[in-house]
Every structure is written in C-alpha cells, then in structure tokens.
Amino acid sequence: MKSKYKGIRMAVIINDTCINCAACIDECPVEAIVDEDDNPTGEEYHYVYPDKCVECVDHFDSPACAEACPTEGCITWDMPFTEDYKDHYNGENYIDGQAYVMDDADAVMPTRADISTEDRQARKPVVED
Q: What is the residue-wise DSSP string for 45-85?
C-alpha cells in the first residue's frame, strides 16, 4: 500500500511532563524514541528523533506513542521537517531553548497531512480528551 503522505516529514515531541514509563517506546514501530538515559539533549525524559519518527503513517491510525502514554498532553505535534522549516530543527527550538539532535537531517519520512501547521506551532497534544 502506498502512503498518501509523501515528500515531507514531521514528528511528535515528548515534553517535560514525561514520567519515563516507557509505554511510548514499546509502541513505536520504528524505534524513534529513546529513554531518558539515551536522550541526546541530556534531559531527564524520553526523546523522539525527528528524523526517524513516521507519526505511525502506514502503521496505525494515529501516533501509537501518544495513544499509549498515560500522561495527558505529554506528547505533542511538532513542526514539519521540510526545507521550509529546516531552521526550526537547526535552531534552538527544542524544549527549553535547546537544539534538536538528529542522525540524518536529510532523511525523507512520511507524515500526517491532516495536522495543521498551526496545531504544530502550538505544540497541541496528539491525543486530546
């Protein structure tokens, strides 16, 4: 089955309300999430590599990490990982003014086209009650 979400990539972000339960890690189909011990930013919570996250496109109807997370609002949308938004990922726009860490800044990943740029800018929760 071909994905309808080609050409741009985006990611989710885990914020500092993470309780380090690892529910998200167990659900990620592409192993894009690392625990607090392996968080490349040094923060004490889990980290999603934006160059690996596929937002569960072609795997699940919505990001499985957020569905599994017991902490409301912990996993939010992040900006598009496109040429237009490269500065976002190259700058200090991660939590608390830190820079993002990526293994492959040129990777091309699928994305969910049904999430607005406004919701991503606002870092709206992936799962809202």
A: S-EE-TTT--TTTTT-SS-HHHHH--STT-EEEEEEESGGG
d(CA 57, CA 45): 24
Chunked in runs of 10, what are the mean pLDDT values of the chain (129 residues)?
Answer: 40 93 96 95 92 89 95 91 73 79 76 86 90
Under CATH, to which class is 9-121 assigned? alpha beta
CB atoms within 10 A of CB 128: 9
In the chain, domain spans: 9-121
Query: What is this structure's pTM?
Result: 0.83
